[in-house]
């Protein structure tokens, strides 16, 4: 891919802008599980599709290039990408990981890796002293998610990378919330970037997919081996859908981020809202670090209602956002972390992380921000009226 163009242009004009053989202006979906071999001395570029498929390879090349890496990998889901990457570790190794990591990643570490003798310490990644003191002689990976989910805490990627390098550890970054459009961890020294491409990268709530990218040839080789060994690869059709979604990534994120900022401001001025979490606010404790390491605040925000009991009424009253698990789509998605993304976390751990019962997360889509704000305004008005009514009845 040519580096002379900006990221926005490179989403469209890259090595796969047309098919070399036919000139088709869309990557062909190569629906084959195996490939003819002329003879056993000449297997050709592809043999069996778990090991390699041209459609998947096009997506893998694309994510590698967009993340400023040298090698990319496409997996059946974000969790497949993440769990396969953890297989780079061995029995007796230790990982230091953000305590407010994605619920599925938490479950993988807490319930699964543990059984294979891989130890972990959850830390507040925004506190570098805490990170440094969690590193042990057998620590192999520092695992970051920034902004974190659902509280949008910001970790200083460069600072953690520095700690990792000084201690012979790798740094993995889950870049799902930002995408390479807004943040490129490999450029900041990270070793491996991971994605749930289900979210912003594919962007249309129509595919579950995971991606990984690295700029280290040793890691690329090991991860390629693991991808083939575990076999949780992304199918050709789904690869194509992710590539189609990628083309509009930049303009989708621009629009959604602009709207998210307006909505975050609206909510923070509302009397029924206790707190709004959005890294674009200068009052957000991580805002300057975030501004340094990324080029936008993104399209996800969380907010806490003053009364936990109002969550149900509000989520039922809103007309526009889809009430669902997920984020990063063309349609806005409202979710309830306590019962959805973080339901797999023990309650005590969840509350310790501030994921209380009054917290809602909003992933802003491509609707008009005015319509979204009007919808929220109406919903909150209803919640307020219900509250006044029940107060009158109980008096
Ligand atoms: C959704 C998500 C994942 C898991 O990805 P799947 O595609 O659902 O397997 C991992 N990390 C983050 C930050 C996510 O939002």
TrEMBL record:
<comment type="similarity">
    <text>Belongs to the trans-sulfuration enzymes family.</text>
</comment>
<dbReference type="InterPro" id="IPR015424">
    <property type="entry name" value="PyrdxlP-dep_Trfase"/>
</dbReference>
<keyword id="KW-0456">Lyase</keyword>
<keyword id="KW-0028">Amino-acid biosynthesis</keyword>
<keyword id="KW-0663">Pyridoxal phosphate</keyword>
<dbReference type="GO" id="GO:0047804">
    <property type="term" value="F:cysteine-S-conjugate beta-lyase activity"/>
</dbReference>
<dbReference type="InterPro" id="IPR015422">
    <property type="entry name" value="PyrdxlP-dep_Trfase_small"/>
</dbReference>
<dbReference type="InterPro" id="IPR015421">
    <property type="entry name" value="PyrdxlP-dep_Trfase_major"/>
</dbReference>
<dbReference type="InterPro" id="IPR054542">
    <property type="entry name" value="Cys_met_metab_PP"/>
</dbReference>
<dbReference type="Pfam" id="PF01053">
    <property type="entry name" value="Cys_Met_Meta_PP"/>
</dbReference>
<dbReference type="InterPro" id="IPR000277">
    <property type="entry name" value="Cys/Met-Metab_PyrdxlP-dep_enz"/>
</dbReference>
<protein>
    <recommendedName>
        <fullName>cysteine-S-conjugate beta-lyase</fullName>
        <ecNumber>4.4.1.13</ecNumber>
    </recommendedName>
</protein>
<keyword id="KW-0486">Methionine biosynthesis</keyword>
